[in-house]
Every structure is written in structure tokens, then in C-alpha cells.
Amino acid sequence: MKPVPLMAHDASVRRLERVWRILEDHGVEPWLDQGSLLGVVRDGRLIPWDNDIDISCWRTQWDRNETAILRALEEARFHYTVRKRGLSLQPEGATMFIDLSFKHVEGNRVLGEFGTPPRSAMEGYLRRLAYKSRFLRGALGSPGAVESTPARRMLSRLAPRMVPRKVALMIERALFQISGNTVEQRIPAHFLERFTPIAWSGHDWRAPADVDGYLAFKYGPDWRKPRREYVYYLEDGAIARPPGAPPTDPTA
Question: Where are the domains of the chain?
């Protein structure tokens, strides 16, 4: 993957700020997570070979205002794809995604999920179909979800608005559910009990208060050493597996 140019990095920060503001305006408190948190803390910037920005939020906060948040994102010209585990956002005209992961508390753990690559040609086909389902959703009533081409904009205006938004979202989630595997994340709850602002690119962003401990849990004691070949769905310390069990490839 090609490194992200500095101008693209700066534009991505501005887009993240817009998403962050929309979420906070609707009662959702996001935080930097995964590789984006790692890059910001370790390098003071996004990891150059990443093609997304990772943030997380509490599922309970999201569920209370999902419809209003999605409408606000559409009005801001963000394309999105909806999964059970979160939301993938692509600003109009951009190549870098913003991935929002939903988390929830269960006992003394915080649970979430990683998506993994398709395991077969059929899963790959279904995954591509799931990504294209945002076009169907847009044509049936959410113009902001349609890729911005003249033909698709025209179709979104002419298509009968016969399928309710909730039904379209259910179809989209179902396609993602059957189009690939996921692995469960289990994070000790104490890492996400308190948050603190961290300064990056002229703004303060929410992050776990014990950020060093959190990153060591997820990426190991050498987390400050960059590793381009890192495979998140095999090596992340939050992946649920029996004690002492070696990593297994869920795509095999």
C-alpha cells in the first residue's frame, strides 16, 4: 500500500473532525482507536500505509440516535456502509475511509469485533455486493448514500421511494453478515473506563486515559517499533482466544 501523502493526511483530519462533531452533537462520545491511535501516540500522525482512520464509540450511545446521525452524515456528503460491528464512512471524493467500531460492556470486559478478509470467491462476491448496497439504499431514499455520479444522482431522484430506510439498512447489514468472517475483541474494561484528550493536528481528541497500557495490551511491549507487516486480525492482543492458544487464521 502506498504511503498517504501529507496533503491527504491533512484532508483526512478535517473530515474526521466533521464526523467527530456530528457524533458529539448527537450524544455519542467517540475515541481514537486501533492503528490510528497507535500512529498518533507513537508518531504524531496517521500510519502512512494505513488506508483508514479508526475510531470507536459505545453501542448504547449510537443506538439511541442512529437515524438522526445517519441523516446528518448524508447531509455532510459522507457515503457509508453499515455493519453489525460498526460503520465505514467514505467522504465524497476521498480514498481514505473512517471506520467507526461499536463497543459494549459485558461484565469486566468491553466487546467488539474485527472484520476479516473473505475466505472464498463467493464471500468476496457477497462482500462487493454489500458495499454496492449503499447505492440501492440511496436510490430508495437516502440520496447522500449514493456515489456522486450524474447517472446515480438522477436515479436517486427518479427511483420510487418504496423501501423504508430501516429495511434497506437491514438488507445491508445482512449482506455484510454473510459475506465474511469476524473475530471477537475482548478488552479489559478498565482500559476504557476513563478517557483523556490528546493533542494532535491542532485538535484535542478523546483517547483511553492509560493509553500506553492500552497500546501495550493490543500491540505488545514493543508497540513503539513500527511493523508494516502487522496482521491485525491475527496478532491484536484483544482477539478472543483460549489462554495460551496460538493465533489462528480465521480466513483459512
Answer: 6-111+188-235, 117-180
